[in-house]
Design a protein that fits this description.
The complex is a heterodimer of chains A (163) and B (180). Chain A is of the alpha/beta class and 163 residues long. Chain A contains three helices and seven strands; from the N terminus they run αββαββββαβ. A five-stranded mixed β-sheet of chain A has the order 1-2-5-4-3. Classes of the chains: A alpha/beta (163), B alpha/beta (180). At the A-B interface, loops of A face loops of B.
């Protein structure tokens, strides 16, 4: 089944599509500037027909130089009960991805959340503001360069432990 | 014979047909025995507070029969539970809406210092947004501990000078928290 899907994608798109399979679920990686084209094809092609956007989230892997940031889309074909995971990676210095709200209105809040925690800018998003964190937060807390611990914590200072 | 214990009267001068004491003490006694709490319960410490209010521990013994769910008619703000950073301004607004004199009881590790939630989304202690009078540690504290905290606040109310809320120090404290 995965071969069929990959075959269709390869005949449609000229760029290389790295892929993997995990627990029977196909995972593909696509260039960031092509992401909406690929998602649109996955959604609208009558054979593939991944109509449902299950989830959209960000990822930060500092070790992957020039591909530190990523966005991952989980799609679901309800009729055939098939899932696919679409990944795209880009530089942390220029974290821009086209918005998926043009395909799924549900992507609106998911993209706001991804912006809130990872600082990924979704170009074309109707209202890209923080959704969960306080409005005046000045960093993206899920990026790995920030400590998980809060900077305003003051009862864990070394002086209290004789360090 | 009834075993009901009557509270002690304040120190003063007593004679036949009269009793003289200072207004401070009289008002302090009245305030301390009729504090109306505003419960601000956000998580598990709130459950301990429910036990504190129940018949076993019975907070009403201390003149707190009535929980005030309007900040306008409350004397103690009891903050019980984790306060997220997004909740901070709301908590401060509730505090500002309370009429003077007012006291704040911070119940549990989360309200006192952030507790185990040393993370970006949680306020690291409510004293970052409002002044706190008594801290009750514990995760969660037992109802006995909450009662002890309440009695500490009663002690503060009983001995507070009537001029304290007009003092420069008090104004400075409020300005520190941007409360006017």
């Amino acid at each position: 089944m995965s071969e069929d899907i990959l075959g269709r994608l390869k005949s449609k798109f000229s760029f290389e599509i790295p892929f993997a399979e995990s627990y029977g679920m196909l995972i593909i990686e696509v260039p960031t500037d092509q992401i909406i084209e690929v998602l649109k094809y996955l959604k609208e092609d009558p054979e593939l027909s991944y109509q449902f956007l299950t989830d959209l989230c960000g990822i930060h892997v500092p070790a992957e130089v020039d591909k530190e940031m990523g966005v991952i889309y989980h799609l679901h074909n309800w009729r055939a009960n098939r899932r696919i995971r679409v990944k795209t990676f880009f530089k942390i210095g220029d974290p821009k991805v086209d918005t998926a709200t043009v395909l799924w209105p549900a992507a609106n809040w998911m993209e706001r959340e991804t912006f809130d925690f990872y600082g990924v800018e979704f170009t074309g998003h109707p209202n890209l503001t923080r959704i969960l964190n306080v409005e005046d937060m000045d960093y993206f807390p899920m990026r790995k360069q920030y400590h998980l611990e809060d900077a305003t914590r003051d009862d864990k200072e070394d002086r209290f432990f004789g360090r | 014979m009834s075993d009901i214990k009557i509270g002690e009267k304040p120190a003063g001068v007593e004679g036949e047909g009269f009793f003289a004491t200072s207004l401070d003490k009289l008002v302090g006694m009245a305030r301390a025995n009729s504090l109306w709490p505003l419960p601000f319960a956000t998580s598990c410490c709130g459950i301990e507070f429910m036990a504190t209010m129940g018949s076993n521990y019975d907070l009403a013994r201390f003149g707190m029969e009535r929980m005030s769910f309007s900040p306008r008619q409350a004397d103690i703000l009891m903050v019980m539970g984790t306060i997220a950073k997004k909740m901070g301004p709301i908590l401060q607004q509730v505090y500002v809406q309370m009429a003077e004199p007012k006291w704040v009881l911070s119940v549990g590790a989360c309200a006192c210092s952030g507790g185990i939630f040393d993370t970006y989304s949680v306020l690291q202690g409510i004293d970052k947004v409002i002044p706190v009078d008594v801290y009750v540690p514990g995760c969660p504290p037992r109802p006995e501990q909450i009662l002890d905290g309440i009695m500490k606040i009663q002690e503060l109310a009983r001995n507070e000078s009537l001029r304290r809320r007009h003092s420069e120090e008090y104004k400075e404290l409020m300005e520190k928290y941007n409360i006017n």
